[in-house]
Amino acid sequence: MSQKILEYPMSTFPVINPATEQHLADVHDATSQDWMQALSDAVTAGQSWSQVTPRQRATVLNDIFAAVAEREDDFATTMTKEMGKPLREARGEVAYGNEYFRWFAEEAVRIDGRLAQSPAGVGTILVTHEPVGPVLAITPWNFPLAMATRKIAPALAAGCSIIVKPAQETPLTMVLLGEVIAEVLRKHNIDEKLVQVITTSHASDMSKELMADPRLRKVTFTGSTGVGRHLVRQSADNLQRTSMELGGNAPFVVAEDADLDLVLTCALQAKMRNGGEACIAANRFLVASSIEEEFTKRLTEHMEGVVMGDGMDDATTLGPIITKKQRDGIAELVDDAVSKGAQVLTGGTIPEGKGFFYPATVLTKLPKDARILSEEIFGPVATVTTFDSLDEGIAMANDTEFGLAAYGFSENIHTAQKLAKELKAGMVGINRGAISDPAAPFGGIKQSGFGREGGSEGIEEYLDIKYIALQ
């Protein structure tokens, strides 16, 4: 294969603390030579790993789980400093993200097959599964550990090697994970190149060049729908398998018979987890008009109680936004809504001082043409609109190009069932605000992507099906 190798000057790129705007570290800025060598190494490492028994793979994954757990404080501190989330939430992400190693250790030994007699009586049908091959994982900045572990763990369980490209804003967590995994692999006399972390500011060049190489067989991506579409188009020439976990615009539908105490608890979980910087964050609160006044009053009171500050401060419940550009984008959505008639009940103004902060904000009386109702907010802003009938509320909820997550609340079982059935999303939470679970398939429909991470379904993304016709 003849391929031009891209050239770059040897360099690094900085990592900035979004709470203080202070420099944290300089990270190696990988080049074409780095990632093409990584692919060659991944091919070699994957060939030997694919021959390792499922039980041995499970043992390695369990040892990675234990090693990450031992370094919980290191991971949490690193994550808070480079991404901004409160330290308590960072520890929660370590526990959640690490659980994927344990879950897929258990799934590694349950890769099934099928044996059946041909209905025509001409032989036996044997169906088996094999590793898909070298994987490229491109991960986002909002959950720098968990978004990587739920790709690495199933890939290893299936018998694949993997190259991970973390977000430029938050590479340090992934570099630490790479070091921890390498230590475990060495203890088992396994090629360290089985899992490789490539940090680079040349993400587009990296994906383009790697995906042009037929040795790469799988691409898994979490990020924006626009980039996801580009990667899918890029995969066409070599017909690489792809998994795309893309943008969301999650509705949070509150029926008139909902338990408002439960609703408020779940609303804060669904909206304010990770400061709203989550693809499954509640974007639109759709509330029955008969209870909207009480709901909005109580939600505003809760949002006013949020403590904004450096995530390393124990009192902080809302950290900074990841970058100035991201923060300013949130402000633009709020300003657009206000200019069109929306009412700000709390927040809505960028505070003075260091750090990329944006306050917890509640908007009501939103016009239908406000951009914030159709675009992903990715920040601590709650929008409240009303409906007069449940059918109207469901129609409003489904009036979006996205379909990642949706939430519905009712104390009536028939209403709850209607919400579960009619809300159009890959994941629906009924009377729950926290829906992520390593044992459940995470993923969306429509412009929110395809493929699933977690659950028994998650490992299937990394397996090829082989049919063997036996006489």
TrEMBL record:
A biological process term (GO) from this entry:
gamma-aminobutyric acid catabolic process
Q: What does the record list as coiled-coil region(s)?
A: none
Aldehyde dehydrogenase domain sequence ranges = 11-468
Which terms in the Gene Ontology molecular function aspect does this entry carry? Answer: succinate-semialdehyde dehydrogenase (NAD+) activity
Q: Which InterPro entries match?
A: Ald_DH/histidinol_DH, Ald_DH_C, Ald_DH_CS_GLU, Ald_DH_N, Aldehyde_DH_dom, Aldehyde_DH_Superfamily
Database matches in Pfam families: Aldedh
Q: Where is the active site?
A: E245
What are the record keywords, sorted? Oxidoreductase
Q: Which family does it belong to?
A: Belongs to the aldehyde dehydrogenase family.
Give the protein name, as stated in the record. Answer: Succinate-semialdehyde dehydrogenase
Q: What is the lineage of its organism?
A: Bacteria, Bacillati, Actinomycetota, Actinomycetes, Mycobacteriales
